[in-house]
Amino acid sequence: AAMVYGLMVHSVDSSQTLHFSIFYTPEGNDGNKKTRQQTIMRRILEEHLFQTHSGDQHSCVKSKATPLEDDWLFRFTTDSKSMAQPGTDYTEGILRLQASSLFEYPKLVVWKQVDKVVHTVVCEPLDNPMLASNFLTLFIHELNDHFKKGSGIVDEIALRPDEVLAILNFLLPGGQLLFTSFHLYRHLKGQTDQVLAQKA
User: pLDDT of 24-67, one tens digit each?
Assistant: First the structure.
């Protein structure tokens, strides 16, 4: 079965601050890994800044300030932000990375930023971005539910990568995106909680 290319949890304030990453392919783990990670983080940072500074303009309006505007697939309209809890800092999007010296084949980058932490899945071109987006929603929920530390969550993620891997083992087994119904999610959550309880 197809795997996603990789997953990262990083800061929205800097393209240098990476809290957690896992890549599922030989290319993703080669000598260019750090440059590749920083390139992805920088592109998301540009997109996040564009969204937060463009105010309430509808996302389909193109702006001359957009970096590489042919590269973004679509921006979620401001309506999707209203689904986040009021007062929560929230941006999300899907970017396309062209083939380059860093990527033999183009990639889709699906990301969600909540309270200054960006959660990113790097997908292959034929992966379903909606499944990736759904996975990120569950993953963010699980991280917050498990670490329950509020602002200190990134420190916990960096200090306890084995627990993040345990969550991924159920939600993204072997890097595969699952079609997750609510019932399957409840079942996976039960299994995840059991494993994490043993680690505590």
Answer: 999 999 999 999 999 999 999 999 999 988 754 444 444 344 44
Residue 102 has pLDDT above 50, yes or no: yes
Spatial contact of 19 and 154, defined as CB atoms under 8 Å apart: yes
How distant is the alpha carbon of residue 42 from its chain centre? 14
Short-list 79, 92, 95, CA closest to 12: 92
CB-based burial label for 123 (10 Å; 0-12, 13-18, 19+): buried
Q: Looking at beta carbons, which pairs linking 195-199 to residues 24 or more positions away fall under 8 Å? A: 195/166, 195/169, 195/170, 196/146, 196/163, 196/166, 196/167, 199/162, 199/163, 199/166
